[in-house]
Structure formats: structure tokens, C-alpha cells
């Protein structure tokens, strides 16, 4: 796949990925992909990431059911960041964060403190087995 050759992978063979909700424009999460994850994402139309903590491919939603359908894959001007435009499935509104929130970016800096500003939509204890 020639298009994969244009991607600037880091020293570990990874590229940072931002998942953005296609409908709302909300930034849902940040993750990593290796070459295989990006190829599988393009092939399946479903977000597949590389989990650095697990050391393996991570099919978004494999445990939680909160799958991301991918509508658009974009590469930034330096070829070193991927943007996925996705629909977050599995709960209304979609849950992208392992904390049970819509977005992983739920903390806002207020008065010198990180303050959670988005609600937990579903208890993570009930999501993960």
C-alpha cells in the first residue's frame, strides 16, 4: 500500500491519531496507530488503534461495545498526525472515553485546577468486564 509509505511514523513505528465526531465536530479522543492499525482502519471502516499499554492492536469497542465507524481519514500537512472523522456507536450519546463520558477531553482548567465539566453517561464498572 503506497499511501502508507507517505506516513511519518515515529521511532516506535507509531503515529498520533485524533478521533473527531463527524456530526458534532467534538474531539473525542487521542490514541496511537501503527502501520497495521491504520491499514485495518482503512480496510474495515472501523477504528483500530495500537494500544501501547497492551502492546497489541485495539479494536475500539472490543470490550465496551463503543465502536467508532470511520467516515474520513486525514493526514496533516507534515504527514505525522492522523485525524479520523467518526461516528461513535454503542450508547446515545456516544461514549468514547473509558471513564464513561462522551469525550476523553472532559477536564477544563478553571482557577488553577482541572475540573470535570462533562457528565459520566454510564458507569465504567458496568461497561468493562
Topology record:
Elements: H1 2-5, E1 14-21, E2 27-34, H2 35-44, E3 48-51, E4 56-59, E5 68-75, E6 82-88, E7 107-110, E8 113-116, H3 124-127
Parallel strand pairs: 1-6
Antiparallel strand pairs: 1-2, 3-4, 5-6, 7-8
Describe the protein in words.
This protein is mainly beta. It has a single domain, classed as Phosphoribosyl-AMP cyclohydrolase (Ubiquitin-like (UB roll), Roll). 14% of the residues lie in helices and 36% in strands. The protein has three helices and eight strands; from the N terminus they run αββαββββββα. The protein has helices spanning 2-5, 35-44, 124-127; strands at 14-21, 27-34, 48-51, 56-59, 68-75, 82-88, 107-110, 113-116. The strands form three sheets. The protein has a four-stranded mixed beta sheet, covered by helices on one side. A two-stranded antiparallel ribbon has the order 3-4. The chain has a two-stranded antiparallel ribbon with strand order 7-8. A hairpin with a 4-residue loop joins strand 3 and strand 4 (56-59). The longest helix has 10 residues, at 35-44. It is globular. The mean pLDDT is 92.
